[in-house]
Amino acid sequence: MSALHERFLCQLPKGALILDAGCGSGRDSKAFIERGFRVQCFDGSAELADRASKFIGQMVSVCQFEEFAERDKYDGVWACASLLHVQEKSLPGVLTRLWSALKPEGILYLSFKLGDGERTHNGRHFTDATEDRLRTWLSALTDISTIDCWNTEDARSDREATWLNAIVRRMPVCVERLITGEKENPFLPHLSSAMAQAAEIDLSVAFIKTTGIRLLLDDMNAALGHDDAI
């Protein structure tokens, strides 16, 4: 997996926050943590989440893709061989949920077995993808900057499969001098992007609630270079 990891990680800032969506055993999360990145992860299987928690040494949440609802939080989302178990009719909505969790200029990695259709194998659902099918599903997303697709062969000796990989980058926030916070132009993405690029941060507020502070904790930790939460 090292080549895929490098292609993803080289596009992220140092100490970036990564979401491993459908982390399985925690294999990739562990590799990212060992490279100095901050990682949060979830899996739909309670048993796998428990095993992964022990493997990587931190809590792994139990969550279905259709339940995930975080916004504007992650520098990168890693969905390796996990979305292929989602039914095709649900994929546009699931992709929108993961996309909404990205910060501006964040990247989404995803992979599917190369193919055209849906199938059941050993009791498990699979949705295969070609580049055209994938681009159709991605058309539901807004603010796409670039889409990079490529094929790889399964490296396991007992498997013969071709994988479709893709990295999709979100556009940066358009810099405006006045942010009024309407639904179409929320304040948090602007603030997160500015904090990620700043050499020095000063905050002056008339009032603030703990719910608002929690939204900024990951960005504040990243700016301070902390490995542990403040």
Walk me through the topology.
Blueprint: H1 2-9, E1 17-21, H2 27-34, E2 38-43, H3 46-56, E3 61-62, E4 74-79, H4 91-100, E5 102-113, E6 117-121, E7 124-128, H5 131-138, E8 144-153, E9 162-170, H6 187-197, H7 210-224
Parallel strand pairs: 1-2, 1-4, 2-3, 4-5
Antiparallel strand pairs: 5-9, 6-7, 8-9
Q: Structural class, please? A: alpha/beta
Sequence of strands across the biggest β-sheet: 3-2-1-4-5-9-8
| Coarse morphology | globular
What is the element string, with H for helices and E for strands?
A: HEHEHEEHEEEHEEHH
Give the helix tally: 7
Give the end-to-end Cα distance, rounded to a whole number of Å.
Answer: 32 Å
Taking pLDDT < 50 over at least 5 consecutive residues as the criterion, the unreliable ranges are: none
Polypeptide structure, described:
This protein has 230 residues and is α/β, with parallel strands linked by helices. It has seven helices and nine strands. It has helices at residues 2-9, 27-34, 46-56, 91-100, 131-138, 187-197, 210-224; strands at 17-21, 38-43, 61-62, 74-79, 102-113, 117-121, 124-128, 144-153, 162-170. Helix 4 (91-100) links the parallel strand 4 and strand 5 (102-113). The longest helix is centred in the C-terminal third of the chain and has 15 residues, at 210-224.
